[in-house]
C-alpha cells in the first residue's frame, strides 16, 4: 500500500485566503459571463498533441477492422467533439479504440459495413438507456482480472491479424486461423512491407528512449506520428510499391443500412458493443481521474468524472458516429493520458482535437494517401502487444487471480470477446465460491486447553468439518474456539450454539475469540466498550480479560502479529528488504504514545521516514546543547533518500508544551530539560505581541497549551528552513514543507495553509474525509 500525508482541506476558515488550487475550468470565474467561450493556451497545445497521436491510430484501427479508412476519421472527430462536449470526464479523449477492433471486425465480416454502422447506433441508444438508469458504477464491479484478460485477449488477436499485413500478406478470419496460416506467410515474405514495418516498430519503441537534450526536444512529437511519417518517407524515397491509404471521395461515403440477419445475433452484437465499450470507457475515466489527481503542473483542480454522464456522452457519440458511417466509439486510455500529460485543463482540448481531425480529413487527403498500409498495421500491432500489460499481470498475480485472467485471455482469442468474457465471469464466480468454501478447521491441545481454530468464512458447507473438530473435544474439557473470518451463516451459528450448550452442560468451559485473541462475549451487548483489538496497547485493564501472569502484553501483541499479520505482509516486507527503503515523505512528530503515525496517515511499510522526539522539535544548526540525531535524520532523508516533502506534526495535550509553559528550562541540567530548550523559540514566538495568534479551523485555540502546540509547528518549520540541505532542496523546488496538527480527542487532523512560506498568519484548516475508496480499488 502506498499512502501519503493527507493534503485535502475543507477551507472551513472564515478568513479569506489564497486557495491551494485554481478553480475548475468547467465553471466560469466569479463575475464572468457563463456563456463566454475561453480557450486556455495549455488546452490548445494539448489538443494538437492528441490530434497528432489520434490521426494515425484512427486510420490504423479502421484498417484493422476492415472498415473504410474514412470511418476511423469520422469516429475520431465525433468522439472528440461530441463526447468532449457532453461527456462526464473532462479530460478523457474518446474515439475508435483497439478494445473494439476485434468485435467490429467480426461484425463487418458477418453483416457488412453498413449494418455494422446501424449496430453502433443501437449500441449508443443502449448506453443512453443504461445512463438513464444510473448504473454506470455497476460496470466497475466487473473483476479487474476479467477486464485485463479481455483487453489482453483483444490485443493478442489484433497483433496476430496485423502481423500478416506487416509480413506483406492478408489476415485470416479469426485468431486461430491467423496462427495456422502464419507458417505459410513466413515462407512468402515481402521485403518492402517488412522494411517499412520494421522501421515503424523501431521508431515506435526507440522514440521515447532517446536520451539527453535531443530526446527532450524530439519527444514533443508523438512517437506514433514520427513512426508513420518515417515509414512514409522511406517508402516514398525508396520508391517501394506497397498498398497505401486510399481515402475515397466523401460523396461516396457509406452510411448505415437497416439491420438484416438473425434477431438474436443482432441483439448479441449490440450487447457486445455496449458491454465492451461501456466498461472500457468507464475504467478509462477512472484512470484519468487518478492521473489528473497525481499531476502537479498545471496546478488546476479538475472535476472528478461523472460516470453516468460519461456513459450518456458515449451513447450520444455512438449514435452520431454510426449514423455518419463511423466506427464505434469508446474512451481511449492512451490518448487520454497524453491529454493529461500535455497539460490540458478543460474539455476544450478534447473538442479541439476533434476539430483538427475534421480539418485533416478535408484538407490533408493527398498527404494521407501516401501512408503505406504496412506502417499502419505495424502501429496497430504494437498497440495490440502493449495491451498485454505487465503492470496488470503483476496486479492480477498479487491478488491471486491469474487463473481468471488466463482463462479470459485464451477464451477471447479462441472464441470471441463476448463468449470469452462470459467464460471469464463463470471462472471468476467459481474461484470466489471455492475461496468461500475453503475453510481450514483444526483442533489441538495446549497446556490442558483444547483449541479449535477456524480460518476462513464459516458457511453451511463447512458445518460437517466443524462438527467433526468440535466432537474431538472431550466432555468437561476447557475449550477455546478461535474464529478468524468476517462471515458466519445461520447453519454454522446453530452448530456452534448447540455444541456450546451441550459442552457447558457436561461441565466444560467454552470461550470464543477473534483473530487477535480478543474474547467474543455472548450476547454481544455484554462486550465492554473498552475491549477492542488494540486493547493490549492501552494503559488499562478489562475485568473480563483472562489473567496472564506469565506473559507480557507486548509479547502477546508480537505473537498475534506473527500469527495474523506477518503472513499477509511477508511478501511486501521481503520486497522492501530487497529493494531498500524509498519513502516519499519525512514525518516528524512527537514521541507521545497516543500519536500513531501509520493510523492517522493511512500509511504502511516503506511509505514514511518517521522521526519522533519529545515535542516534535527541530534543533537549529549549531544550537547550544544541540542533538545531531534530528539533523542527521533530515540530512539522510533529504540528500540520500531524496524525499519530496517534510511534515511537522504537533498534537493536542502535548506534555512537552505543557512543561515549557509551566517551567521554561532556563539553566536546566537534566537531559529532558536540556532538550526542551529547543522549544523556547516557540514560546517566545507565542508571547510576542507583534505576531498574530495561530487559528484552527476558523477559531482561536482552546487554551494556552493548544496555542503553543500550534505555534510550535510553525516555528519548527522555520527551523527546518535553516538547515542547509533542506534550504537547498526548497530553492531547487524539489522539496515541500507541510505543517500539521492532530487533535487526539477529536481524532481530527488539521493542515497549515501556506506551509512553504514564511508567514505570521498561521491558519490550520480541517482535513475533510476522503472520498469513496472505489477509485483506489480499481486503479
UniProtKB/TrEMBL annotation:
<feature type="transmembrane region" description="Helical">
    <location>
        <begin position="145"/>
        <end position="167"/>
    </location>
</feature>
<keyword id="KW-0812">Transmembrane</keyword>
<dbReference type="Pfam" id="PF00484">
    <property type="entry name" value="Pro_CA"/>
</dbReference>
<feature type="transmembrane region" description="Helical">
    <location>
        <begin position="111"/>
        <end position="133"/>
    </location>
</feature>
<feature type="transmembrane region" description="Helical">
    <location>
        <begin position="355"/>
        <end position="383"/>
    </location>
</feature>
<feature type="transmembrane region" description="Helical">
    <location>
        <begin position="403"/>
        <end position="433"/>
    </location>
</feature>
<keyword id="KW-1133">Transmembrane helix</keyword>
<dbReference type="InterPro" id="IPR036874">
    <property type="entry name" value="Carbonic_anhydrase_sf"/>
</dbReference>
<comment type="function">
    <text>Catalyzes the reversible hydration of carbon dioxide to form bicarbonate.</text>
</comment>
<dbReference type="InterPro" id="IPR001902">
    <property type="entry name" value="SLC26A/SulP_fam"/>
</dbReference>
<feature type="transmembrane region" description="Helical">
    <location>
        <begin position="263"/>
        <end position="288"/>
    </location>
</feature>
<protein>
    <submittedName>
        <fullName>Transporter</fullName>
    </submittedName>
</protein>
<feature type="compositionally biased region" description="Basic and acidic residues">
    <location>
        <begin position="15"/>
        <end position="24"/>
    </location>
</feature>
<feature type="transmembrane region" description="Helical">
    <location>
        <begin position="44"/>
        <end position="64"/>
    </location>
</feature>
<keyword id="KW-0472">Membrane</keyword>
<dbReference type="InterPro" id="IPR001765">
    <property type="entry name" value="Carbonic_anhydrase"/>
</dbReference>
<comment type="similarity">
    <text>Belongs to the beta-class carbonic anhydrase family.</text>
</comment>
<feature type="region of interest" description="Disordered">
    <location>
        <begin position="1"/>
        <end position="38"/>
    </location>
</feature>
<feature type="transmembrane region" description="Helical">
    <location>
        <begin position="222"/>
        <end position="243"/>
    </location>
</feature>
<dbReference type="Pfam" id="PF00916">
    <property type="entry name" value="Sulfate_transp"/>
</dbReference>
<dbReference type="InterPro" id="IPR011547">
    <property type="entry name" value="SLC26A/SulP_dom"/>
</dbReference>
<feature type="transmembrane region" description="Helical">
    <location>
        <begin position="187"/>
        <end position="210"/>
    </location>
</feature>
<feature type="domain" description="SLC26A/SulP transporter">
    <location>
        <begin position="43"/>
        <end position="407"/>
    </location>
</feature>
Amino acid at each position: 500500500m502506498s499512502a501519503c500525508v493527507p493534503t485535502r482541506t475543507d477551507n472551513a476558515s472564515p478568513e479569506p485566503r489564497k486557495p491551494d488550487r485554481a478553480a475548475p475550468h468547467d465553471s466560469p470565474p466569479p463575475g464572468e459571463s457563463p456563456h463566454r467561450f475561453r480557450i486556455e493556451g495549455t488546452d490548445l497545445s494539448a489538443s494538437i498533441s492528441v490530434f497528432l497521436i489520434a490521426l494515425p491510430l484512427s486510420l490504423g484501427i479502421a484498417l484493422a477492422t476492415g472498415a473504410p479508412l474514412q470511418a476511423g476519421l469520422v469516429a475520431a472527430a465525433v468522439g472528440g467533439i461530441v463526447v468532449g462536449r457532453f461527456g462526464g470526464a473532462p479530460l478523457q479523449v474518446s474515439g475508435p479504440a483497439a478494445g473494439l477492433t476485434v468485435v467490429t471486425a467480426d461484425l463487418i465480416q458477418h453483416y457488412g459495413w453498413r449494418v455494422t454502422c446501424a449496430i453502433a447506433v443501437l449500441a449508443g441508444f443502449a448506453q443512453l438507456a443504461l445512463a438513464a438508469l444510473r448504473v454506470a458504477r455497476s460496470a466497475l464491479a466487473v473483476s479487474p482480472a476479467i477486464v485485463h484478460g479481455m483487453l489482453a485477449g483483444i490485443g493478442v488477436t489484433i497483433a496476430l491479424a496485423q502481423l500478416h499485413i506487416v509480413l506483406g500478406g492478408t489476415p485470416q478470419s479469426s485468431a486461430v486461423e491467423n496462427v495456422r496460416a502464419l507458417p505459410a506467410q513466413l515462407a512468402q515474405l515481402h521485403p518492402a512491407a517488412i522494411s517499412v514495418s520494421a522501421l515503424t516498430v523501431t521508431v515506435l519503441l526507440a522514440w521515447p528512449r532517446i536520451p539527453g537534450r535531443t530526446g527532450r526536444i524530439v519527444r514533443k512529437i508523438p512517437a506514433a506520428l514520427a513512426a508513420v511519417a518515417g515509414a512514409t518517407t522511406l517508402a516514398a524515397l525508396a520508391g517501394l510499391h506497397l498498398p497505401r491509404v486510399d481515402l475515397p471521395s466523401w460523396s461516396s461515403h457509406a452510411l448505415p443500412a437497416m439491420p438484416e440477419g438473425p434477431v438474436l445475433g443482432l441483439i448479441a452484437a449490440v450487447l457486445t458493443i455496449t458491454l465492451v465499450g461501456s466498461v472500457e470507457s468507464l475504467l478509462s475515466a477512472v484512470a484519468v481521474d487518478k492521473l489528473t489527481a497525481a499531476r502537479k503542473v498545471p496546478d488546476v483542480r479538475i472535476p472528478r468524472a461523472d460516470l453516468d454522464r460519461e456513459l450518456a456522452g458515449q451513447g450520444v457519440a455512438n449514435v452520431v458516429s454510426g449514423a455518419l458511417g463511423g466506427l464505434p466509439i469508446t474512451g481511449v486510455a492512451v490518448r487520454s493520458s497524453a491529454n493529461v500529460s500535455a497539460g490540458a485543463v478543460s474539455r476544450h482540448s478534447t473538442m479541439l482535437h476533434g476539430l483538427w481531425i475534421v480539418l485533416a480529413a478535408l484538407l490533408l487527403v493527398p498527404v494521407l494517401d501516401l501512408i503505406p498500409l504496412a506502417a499502419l498495421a505495424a502501429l496497430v500491432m504494437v498497440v495490440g502487444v502493449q495491451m498485454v500489460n505487465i503492470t496488470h499481470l503483476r496486479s492480477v498475480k498479487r491478488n491471486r487471480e491469474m487463473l481468471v485472467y488466463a482463462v479470459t485471455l485464451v477464451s477471447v482469442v479462441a472464441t470471441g470477446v463476448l463468449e470469452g468474457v462470459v467464460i471469464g465471469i463463470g471462472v471468476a464466480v467459481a474461484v470466489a465460491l471455492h475461496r468461500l468454501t475453503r475453510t481450514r478447521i483444526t483442533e489441538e491441545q495446549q497446556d490442558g486447553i483444547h483449541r479449535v481454530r477456524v480460518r476462513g468464512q464459516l458457511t453451511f458447507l463447512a458445518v460437517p468439518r466443524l462438527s467433526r473438530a468440535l466432537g474431538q473435544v472431550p466432555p468437561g474439557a476447557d475449550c477455546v474456539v478461535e474464529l478468524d473470518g468476517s462471515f458466519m451463516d445461520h447453519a454454522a451459528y446453530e452448530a456452534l450454539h448447540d455444541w456450546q450448550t451441550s459442552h457447558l452442560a457436561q461441565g466444560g468451559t467454552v470461550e470464543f475469540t477473534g483473530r487477535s485473541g480478543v474474547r467474543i462475549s455472548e450476547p454481544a451487548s455484554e462486550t465492554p466498550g473498552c475491549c477492542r483489538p488494540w486493547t493490549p496497547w492501552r494503559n488499562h485493564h478489562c475485568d473480563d480479560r483472562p489473567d496472564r501472569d506469565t506473559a507480557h502484553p507486548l509479547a502477546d501483541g508480537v505473537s498475534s502479529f506473527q500469527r495474523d499479520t506477518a503472513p499477509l505482509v511477508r511478501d511486501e516486507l521481503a520486497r522492501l528488504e530487497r529493494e531498500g527503503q524509498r519513502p516519499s515523505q519525512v514525518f516528524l512528530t512527537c514521541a507521545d504514545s497516543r500519536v500513531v503515525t501509520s493510523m492517522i496517515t493511512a500509511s504502511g511499510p516503506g511509505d514514511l521516514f518517521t522521526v519522533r522526539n519529545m515535542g516534535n522539535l527541530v534543533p537549529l544548526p549549531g544550537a547550544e546543547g544541540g542533538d545531531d540525531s534530528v539533523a542527521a535524520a533530515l540530512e539522510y532523508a533529504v540528500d540520500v533518500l531524496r524525499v519530496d516533502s517534510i511534515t511537522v506534526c504537533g498534537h493536542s495535550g502535548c506534555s512537552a508544551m505543557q512543561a515549557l509553559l509551566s517551567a521554561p528550562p532556563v539553566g536546566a541540567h537534566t537531559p529532558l530539560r536540556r532538550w526542551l530548550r529547543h522549544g523556547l523559540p516557540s514560546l517566545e514566538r507565542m508571547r510576542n505581541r507583534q505576531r498574530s495568534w495561530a487559528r484552527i479551523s476558523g477559531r482561536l485555540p482552546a487554551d494556552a497549551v493548544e496555542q503553543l502546540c500550534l505555534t510550535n509547528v510553525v516555528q519548527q518549520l522555520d527551523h527546518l528552513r535553516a538547515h542547509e540541505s533542506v534550504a537547498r532542496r526548497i530553492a531547487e523546488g524539489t522539496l515541500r514543507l507541510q505543517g500539521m496538527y492532530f487533535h487526539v480527542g477529536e481524532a481530527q487532523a488539521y493542515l497549515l495553509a501556506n506551509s512553504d512560506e514564511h508567514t505570521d498568519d498561521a491558519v490550520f484548516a480541517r482535513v475533510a474525509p476522503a472520498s469513496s475508496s472505489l477509485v483506489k480499488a480499481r486503479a
